[in-house]
Amino acid sequence: MPLSLIPAEFNVQRDADLCIECGVCTRQCAHGCQNIDPEDGSVSSDEKLCVGCQRCVTLCPTGALQVVQRAEQGRYHAVWNTGARRAIARQAESGGMLLTGMGADKPFPLYWDRLFLNASQVTNPSIDPLREPMELRTFLGAKPDKIEFDQQGKPLTKLSPQLELEIPVIFSAMSYGSISLSAAMSLARAAAESGTYFNTGEGGLHRSLAQYGSNAIVQVASGRFGVTPAYLENSAAVEIKIGQGAKPGIGGHLPGEKVSADVSATRMIPQGADAISPAPHHDIYSIEDLKQLIYALKEATGYSKPISVKIAAVHNVVPIASGAVRAGADIVAMDGVRGGSGATPTMIRDNVGIPIELALGAVDAQLRKDGIRHRASLVVAGGFRNSADVMKAIALGADAVYIGTAALIGLGCHMCQKCYTGKCTWGIATQDPYLTKRLNPEIGVRRLKNLLRAWGLEMKEMLGGMGMNSIDSLRGNREMLRGIDMTEQELEILGVLPAGR
Amino acid sequence: MHRLPDFKIPAACGTAGILDRTGRRFNSEDVVRAMSVMRERGNGLGAGFVVYGIYPEHAEEYALHIMAMDQAGLDRLREYLPTALEVVHDEEIPTRPTPTIHDEPVLWRFFVRVPEKRLVGVEPRDERDYLVSTIMFINQEVEGAYVASSGKNMGVFKGVGYPEPIAEFYRLEEYLGHLWVSHTRFPTNTGGWWGGAHPFDVLEWSIVHNGELSSYGVNKRYVESNGYPCTLFTDSEVISYMFDLLCRRHKLSIEMACLAMACPEWEDIDREPDLTRKHLLTLMRQTYAGALLNGPFAVIAGYDGGMVGFCDRLKLRPLAAAIKGDRSYLASEEAAIWAVDGEPEESWPIDAGKPVVFTLEEEKVASLAHSC
Amino acid sequence: MKRIYTKEEYCIGCRLCEIYCIFEHSGHQTLVKAFRDEENLPEPAVMVEEEGPISFALQCRHCEDAPCVAACIAGAMTRDPETGVVHHDAEKCVGCWSCVMMCPFGGIHIDLEEGKVVSKCDLCGEEGIPACVLHCPNEALVYE
Ligand code: SF4
Ligand code: SF4
Ligand code: SF4
Q1: Domain boundaries, position A78
Q2: DSSP letters of chain C?
Q3: Residue B248 sits in a domain of what CATH number?
């Protein structure tokens, strides 16, 4: 085999004064980087194999290890930097598309960091969440224009089916297959115990998760994996997946290695076979077709569940979202360019789509202008890092937020972006029984519940600070936002004033 | 006259409303006396009055009270109005020079009807919808003209100053009405704009308001997406549109409209033992999340049938109610009520989130309607 | 009495339990020092068994009816009637290995050179939590 020219990405630094040669690191590294010499028990690292997952660093009992990104290698070049050269070397050696996992890692503008929330001072009092109830409860689904009453004053208006959330944060679509059963179990149970929802992704619902059906948003994607009457029935809502922020316009590919016996049973495909989701739904080539599928699913579920349509935020997201609402979607989920994935071509992930902030700003404004904003709830996804991001999204007009990456980080993910290799050393994005054991769902559930609780506390504090005791009063309240570092046009799209005005 | 601001200015306020439930009409003296007690609550940068029952001779026409920046603004309006409405009569609003009042706009009133032909092909065929959009058009597009009130047999008189000089300026002692509501304002900025004073009005609904809505942005968007563009950046404007939307267009009762705007907390709804009511409250909150008013407020809303007072869900701003004889009172301070006619027969502070509605006695409403 | 239980499905085979067992019984203040003192490095009383993806940590079960106590010819193996902990007294141990043969779990470890029993779980955290349980990163060991 000729010499590989792919430059190593990481420096594995082992402090000899601290290393006790216990071998923990060698047992934890799933990428073959850390090795123990069978002769004398000494440990060493093959840095070229390191993916920077930090598993060894975290488990090393003496803190002897550090795994750090290498500085630029060779002569500095602003354009032909090491990353660019590494990508070319990888392709020159493999002849394949560059694959990656998680959301785009390019330094796109993060509008959340350019937006500031408001607080009350003097003219209206802030409200203390320790003394007054603070409401985060949110309902997702179509709302009527108005309520009509009969002669006796009894309401005649019937509400469409709704999802009831105790916190406007939902775990976004991550299929069993792309993530381990322990991870899926952690998400499902944490959602159920926190009063929110998880999303099955397009991988079907594993039988051990069936008991969490009433907290499940089940996806119907182009591959139709695992879609049965029972699957649709045992759910809180059904989501038609049109697109994903990490890979707008392309389908999905779960490599055969990840299709274990269990995954095959859940997805209803042969074991070891690649699971291919076509790029489009081959029964949806137009908005009328989408309407048909929405109503087919409503019929199939007896109009008892909200139907969501998930789209990637692309340039013409406004008419698409508005079309989805007019086609009967009860929820429109939009995933921005920073949205994550278990496997996606790097070039697509990093170059296709638009930031969710701008998509949300534009879509919410247009739906309001058209007077149809109440006919569907907006759920946004794609890189939500903390409760402040969530609050800003709600102030821009979102009803709720999908979190994927944040939830996985809560479970232990260290963002090495190697989900697609199936060798996640944290037991999250893998089906290897040796690795999946690393995620104890008892711990996972606890951590995710803590995460939601902590965000909830912060959100209540911020709400109270703005003089509100209900999240209803923040939804679409762009007066509570001010921007910095933005062009006039960006401010206009977001519908916010610059800070100081 | 100062230009209209393009941002929101918080303000604190004093309010008072007096209704004669039998429909007997009286002049401004009583309400002015009530307001004098609450001088502390204003800073002379805005005060106003709304009176119902003042134009019996024009009771069938909508009375448009206009504030124009200058003569040119009024001229532009004069040019536009006949293209949209039938002007039955118009006149200058009489005023008298008053020492502390200056910078006044050109003040005019038009009594108008909606011509039948304007409603051809309009669904639903409701002249009031047409009128609302005409008012919105004037406020947005007719430069320098602003509609201060637009109901029938009523009018808003407001400006920059304390309530007493404003009443004097507008010669309010010369008017007779069965319902008077007044407001004095403590805006936190310096520039006073005449149009920015309260009450705010759309058709029959006039609003005075003490407080600051933290939910303003949500409420504004809610009424805007229902066809009420907000041009004045004040809470009261939004609340007046909200009443028009909920009561007139959605046909909610006043109690239901107030419930939509100040619905109980989920904690209480969850505990509600009466399942029918629980269902209703849940439905209201889900449907009218955009109408929910949050933050401190105490509102007096006047309308053809009477007046309603209500406060936020935490009762962060004061409002007292009282009854004496044929009269009902609402005021920021009970002292203001005493100042008018001594100790009331009955008085109570308004509960958080629970509206108090004082209505004209039925037959009087009917006879008022016929008397013209 | 409380015992250490192992949850095989969550044992990731990292062997940190062994490492902390050694440290706990080394008498040293830091892990690094304990391991640098190779002369006196104790044997771990917990041992991780591993095959393929399956692994679990095993240590003395502190049986109620302890066969090792019955088998000990020197009275070195005793069971505290109050706490229920099975103790080993190295002074008294003669190295006959009767206990080793009787233990159905393989919980007793020997030193071939010295010929004596050298390590046996003493539930070091009797007052609190045993070191192995405390440091298991995945809660595969529980003390309850
Ligand atoms: S885990 Fe730490 S102490 Fe153990 S061998 Fe690896 S580097 Fe050395
Ligand atoms: S791949 Fe992960 S576990 Fe392996 S050496 Fe690198 S950081 Fe450590
Ligand atoms: S420390 Fe826990 S996970 Fe690691 S080997 Fe021991 S029992 Fe297993």
Answers
A1: 10-96
A2: ---EEE-GGG-----HHHHHHHHHTT--SSHHHHHH-GGGPPPPS-EEEEETTEEEEE-----TT-HHHHH-SSS-EEE-TTT--EEE-TTT-----HHHHH-TT--EEE-TTT-SEEEE---TTTTS--HHHHH-TTS-EEE-
A3: 3.60.20.10
Which protein residue's CA is at the shortest distance from atom 2 of ligand 1? A60
- B3: distance to nearest CA of chain A, Å? 17
Identify which has the larger pLDDT, B191 or C101: C101
**Residue-range definition of the domain harbouring residue B31:** 14-371
Does residue B36 lie within any of the structural domains?
yes
pLDDT at position B362: 67
Question: What is the C-alpha separation between B1 and B7, in angstroms, rounded?
Answer: 18
Residue A352 Cβ inside 6 Å of ligand 1? The answer reads no
In the reported structure, the alpha carbon of residue C98 is separated from the centroid of ligand 3 by a whole-number distance in angstroms of 29
Q: CB atoms < 10 A from the CB of A156, how many?
A: 8
Give yes or no for A432 touching C (CB within 8 A): yes
| A19, part of any domain | yes
A440/C contact by beta carbon, under 8 A: yes
Contact A466, A119 (CB under 8 A): yes
**With an 8 Å Cβ cutoff, are A24 and C19 in contact?**
yes
Complex ipTM, two decimals? Answer: 0.90
**Spacing, Cα A439 to ligand 3 middle (Å):** 13
**pLDDT class of A226 with cuts at 50, 70, 90:** confident
Asked if A142 and A77 sit in the same domain, the reply is no
Could you give the domains of chain C?
1-59+121-144 (3.30.70.20), 63-104+113-118 (3.30.70.20)
Total tally of structural domains belonging to chain B: 1
**Is B247 marked active-site?**
no
Distance of residue B252 Cα from the nearest chain A Cα, in angstroms: 8
- At B105, the pLDDT band (50, 70, 90 cuts) reads very high
- Whether A103 is in a domain gets the answer no
